[in-house]
Amino acid sequence: MIEIISRSTQSRLTSIGIPVASAGVALLLAAIPLxxxxxxxxxxxxxxxxxxxxxxxxxxEMLTRATPLIFTGLAAAVAFRAKLWNIGGEGQLYLGxxxxxxxxxxxxxxxxxxxIPLVLLAGAMAGGLGMVGPAVLKTRFGADEVVTSLLLNxxxxxxxxxxLEGPFKDPMGLGxxxxxxxxxxAILPQLMERMRLHAGFLLAxxxxxxxxxxxxxxxxxxxxxxxxENAAAARHAGIRVNRTYLAVAFASGGLAGxxxxxxxxxxxxxxxxxxxxxxxxxxxVVAMLAGLSPTGVVIAALFVASVFVxxxxxxxxxxxxxxxxxxxxxxxxxxxxxxxxxxxxxxRIKARAVS
Amino acid sequence: MIDILNxxxxxxxxxASLRIATPLIFGVLGALxCERSGVLNLGxxxxxxxxxxxxxxxxxxxxxxxxxVLGAAFAGGLFGLLHGILTVPLGLSQxxxxxxxxxxxxxxASFTYRTALPQVTSPPRIEPFRALDIxxxxxxxxxxPVLFQQTALTWLALAMVALVWWVMERTSIGVAxxxxxxxxxxxxxQGLSVIRLRMGAVIAGSALMxxxxxxxxxxxxxxxxxxMVNGRGWxxxxxxxxxxxxxxxxxxxxxxxxxxxxLQVRLQAEAGAFIPGQVFLMVPYVLSIIALVxxxxxxDYPRALLVPWFKGQR
Lengths: 355, 314
Known about the structure:
The structure holds 2 protein chains of 2 kinds.
Chain A: E1 2-6, H1 12-29, H2 31-36, H3 41-53, H4 56-81, H5 89-107, H6 112-141, H7 145-165, H8 200-217, H9 219-229, H10 231-236, H11 241-268, H12 279-289, H13 294-318, H14 323-344, E2 345-349
Helix pairs in contact in A: 1-14, 3-4, 3-13, 4-8, 4-11, 4-12, 4-13, 5-6, 5-7, 5-11, 5-12, 6-7, 6-11, 8-9, 8-13, 9-11, 12-13, 12-14, 13-14
Chain B: H1 2-9, H2 11-36, H3 44-60, H4 65-87, H5 94-116, H6 143-148, H7 152-170, H8 172-182, H9 184-189, H10 194-220, H11 232-242, H12 247-271, H13 277-296
């Protein structure tokens, strides 16, 4: 019979090894859909690799793609640490982007040096408030935040479409539902000549560092982890659990909001309703691959971005659907979940005892 | 006011309500089965997509419609099996596994669709289920259009409500199923397998969810589009709480929801000149949140929901 025995300790090795192995297994499993699609497997992998590491341009494209994923990954990692299930990253991203174009298209005529901080602040506030809503419904009414934050994604996206066809519509946009362009002073600068990589990437790295310090070294970070591990015990120990939920919600939503600001002020320059191809949802995978560690989020985001950029390039070259990237990313989530099981338990198979 | 009254008096309004409710009836029943056994299945949104794609593709490849229905249920059951393995014997996080299933299932469906049809500008159509034409009944005034001119899948959904109710209230499996979601240790003490009961419930529930997706491509529409599920699965997760995990109330919740949705479409036609159309599009999602908030405090969650169970370990 099969016996499952709990491991007493988790080694540092498994906490890094399992996500790496999961990513590897997911990449290998991608051979199955590649074969099914009739593509030459090895050259497809080669094309994916070259699509990321083939040139400086492709590499910076990968870093550009990783930027919003670091923010949404951090958003999920911070919230999940407190076992606050923020699945609304996608909506909060759009709220951040909407606030960024609201402030950044000339609503405020501030000194140019202040425009970027203002836009970032507005985006973070908007995203943060977007998650405070579900958190209040949870703490005041006991409504499950999984469902409310998920449903808010749809409401917010429709709201953004409404704004883009109404008050936010660019009169010079030839009728397309898009916002006016962000003024130059509020644009996040490019980091390299002729590359799309922008200062949002450095901002994401800095934010991850700050999040890491806050989560591991401060009392606040300790409270968040205590609430996540056992809310009842935390309450007993005098931690104000509901207040912690609200603060975590605001922080998490704010991080997702920054993803929206960075995309709109760093990459696109104006807002459309197709700004994000699901960065909010992918952020959940990033956070899980990272084991909810803020520094791990950076590495996981680089991996996931590589998969997307590499698969896009492979798709253009070989005609295999770029949904392959979504397949790899979702499989790596399932693998890392499975890996978590093996890090916590030994599985022993022994002969059935005769009774 | 007269306009609203006219809407409520029209048979087309009630027919539309039932039609809109149909995929939700499948979905809520599926979520209900899973959760009653103690397993939250957030894979529902992706399983809807898989059901929609599989059902459509089976028929597009030349099989009869009912084979498409079976294919959808089978595909849903497979993803239910995966979610079951991850959450029941392995006891992994039901939240994360469910979200993983949703992402995985929708990418499998999208990849398969794109691989089979690399370059199509308009989605290929199939001949979907047609409205029933029952002698006498379909010609009745009011009741005819509302009940007897629906497609067979709507009747299948209604039959499933009765079936799930009957299994849960009148069979020993149903009693065990409800017990396993409340107190798995007691079920184990009676010599029943907690693992098998939960696995069975998750697989059957997922198959039902996939039928909700199948209804979209084989009855409501006649083709598969990306994004066609559009949160219907998540709405079911809210509705099952609203329905306090009771099949009868699940039907009621889905019907109420269908009514509001049918109403907003009609109000949009009336008031579209003054109010942006998007306001109406938000209504279903806002209503789901309100429904959830209203019942949240009173909700009588299955006590072992989200709690993994391991043999010999309490």
